[in-house]
Amino acid sequence: MDKNQIVQLLEGIGELLALKEGSSVFELRAYENGARALNSLDGDIKQLVKEGKLKGTPGLGPTIIKRIEEAVETDHIAFYDELVANTPAVKLDMLRIPGLGPKRINTIYEQVKVTSLAELEQACKENRVAVLPGFGKKTQDKILQGIAFLSEHADRFLYPVAEEEAARIHEALATLPEIVRHQVAGSLRRRRETVKDIDMVVSVADDAGPEARRKIMEFFTTQPTVKAITGKGETKSSVILGSGIAMDLRVVADRQFPYTLHHFTGSREHHIPLRRRAQSMNMTINDYGLFKINGEQEELVPCQTEADIYAALGMEYVEPELREDMGEIEAAAQHTLPTLVEEKDIRGVLHAHSTWSDGHNSIREMAEACIERGYSYLGLTDHSKAAAYAGGLSEDDLMKQGEEIDRLNEEFAGRFRILKGTECDILRDGTLDFPDHILAKLDFVVASIHSNFQLSPQEQTERMVRAIANPYVSIIGHPTGRILLSREGYQLDMEAVIEAAARHGVCIEINAHPSRLDLDWHLVRKARDKGIKVPIGPDAHSLAGIDVIRYGIGAARKGWLRANDVLNTLETEALLAFFHVQRNRG
């Protein structure tokens, strides 16, 4: 169990205690503080526990440390399991509704007497929730929207959850000598932002007997992370993993591997026009192979890799991220597919927080972590004063922070550059939280919406467009405000926002945090085609947070971005020149 999973368990204990009648407020606060304290620590949690380095950490008392040690040693916390077992199931279900906290959950449970989400939905439709003290019709409507949201996204998982589960199995399978090749397939390979299940394909030698396949399947279905077996055979086995995600493993002869991998990578939408192209060339393609049709006979077209399959169809290789029927078939046939951006193309970080606002690390620590990762610059963007909940800076504090940045830049002496920035709140009327004469003293400005999500689509769009028109706005941060699997974004016309950004030369961010990945990849290509530069920002609040850039790379690749489409592939001086031209755009 890694640090993030333990943090989630501690946060979960705090929530469960809040749901429990008679719980001590001091106890639940201890778990909330413990989760924050643990999240701020750097280094491998197993090593920290082994070396006894948790002791003395502010926010981690003896009981919390024992819970963390238990999680590291046993992969669970018995106290958490006990709380879950003793909490009514409907309360656990209600915790998943966006914006519905423990206090209101307890009120609904005690006064409306619901025992399921279906009953809660019916109670809302009958206006029995709106009349509760402190609720009202707006809250009731939000609960209904939340239930609908949960129904729509049921049984889906964030990309990192699926990736981590798949990586464990992939690493374990690599130890089996019977396996020739093995690869993750499905939507995980295509780097979709959420994943319903995991597909993996492995191959054995063409002359391997059934015993080799049986050994692989026995090994797979008895892995420690497997919680249930839903199917088991020599060519396919299905399991449920610890996170609750389903996984299928397929075993094929190595000569069949590229065809099967291609087929189960998908998407279905990509395969339909690909099959039409194959048919136009008197061929057919499925998970068993690519075949040339000769009368009533089908002749296998030998392919060692997926690239061979596309080549046989007269096409460039289509990267898995692009296989969504978004024009990639035509582009591959015309040999005009883009060379997609890669993680190694990124030169620096734009969008990061420090202890000046709600970050866990100092500016120096964030800068040194960037240097360790080979980056050339750090664009620091602590919150503005309207974000008081996140320790937003006043104008005076922002200027003092600038002085610290100047001192550090002198010390780094040209080998690294910290850029003065802010994540400046876009206020309700579209003006910015800092006046222009303050923004003019910064290197760049990320403007973001953090409040008034309930505005009408027209009001929200006008608000965003007005902010874009401010000459000091460099980048729009997390433009829709969505939280994947938890909260829909605020309602606005993104087509109009993209048009405005293109008109004013403003960049639109891909917020790389895996719970955001906002701008959505469907819109990324539209922004690119309008000439908008797209930064990939980690929105880092800790040293480890810097590394989520790689998730943003996935969204960028799905949006057809090349290296020169991504703002932070620019070297330091070129980036500063870009910002200078941008704010003098007239």
UniProtKB/TrEMBL annotation:
Instruction: Write down the required cofactor(s).
Output: Mg(2+)
UniProt entry tagged with the keyword Transferase: yes
**CDD domains, sorted:** NT_POLXc, PHP_PolX
EC numbers listed for it are 2.7.7.7, 4.2.99.18
DNA-directed DNA polymerase X domain: from which residue to which, for each copy?
2-324
Reaction(s) the record says it catalyses: 2'-deoxyribonucleotide-(2'-deoxyribose 5'-phosphate)-2'-deoxyribonucleotide-DNA = a 3'-end 2'-deoxyribonucleotide-(2,3-dehydro-2,3-deoxyribose 5'-phosphate)-DNA + a 5'-end 5'-phospho-2'-deoxyribonucleoside-DNA + H(+); DNA(n) + a 2'-deoxyribonucleoside 5'-triphosphate = DNA(n+1) + diphosphate; a 5'-end 2'-deoxyribose-2'-deoxyribonucleotide-DNA = (2E,4S)-4-hydroxypenten-2-al-5-phosphate + a 5'-end 5'-phospho-2'-deoxyribonucleoside-DNA + H(+)
Pfam families listed in its UniProt record = DNA_pol_B_thumb (PF14791), HHH_5 (PF14520), HHH_8 (PF14716), PHP (PF02811)
What are its GO biological-process terms? DNA repair
Q: Which residues form the Helix-hairpin-helix DNA-binding motif class domain?
A: 52-71, 92-111, 127-146
Q: What is its main location?
A: cytoplasm
The Polymerase/histidinol phosphatase N-terminal domain is annotated at 348-428
Query: Keyword Hydrolase on this protein?
Result: yes
Q: Which GO terms describe its molecular function?
A: class I DNA-(apurinic or apyrimidinic site) endonuclease activity; DNA binding; DNA-directed DNA polymerase activity; exonuclease activity; phosphoric ester hydrolase activity; zinc ion binding
Supply the alphabetized keyword list. Answer: DNA damage, DNA repair, DNA replication, DNA synthesis, DNA-directed DNA polymerase, Exonuclease, Hydrolase, Methylation, Nuclease, Nucleotidyltransferase, Sodium, Transferase, Ubl conjugation
Any one GO cellular component localisation term in the record: cytosol
Question: What's the stated role of this polypeptide?
Answer: Repair polymerase that plays a key role in base-excision repair. During this process, the damaged base is excised by specific DNA glycosylases, the DNA backbone is nicked at the abasic site by an apurinic/apyrimidic (AP) endonuclease, and POLB removes 5'-deoxyribose-phosphate from the preincised AP site acting as a 5'-deoxyribose-phosphate lyase (5'-dRP lyase); through its DNA polymerase activity, it adds one nucleotide to the 3' end of the arising single-nucleotide gap.
State the protein's name: DNA polymerase beta
Q: What organism is recorded for this protein?
A: Tengunoibacter tsumagoiensis
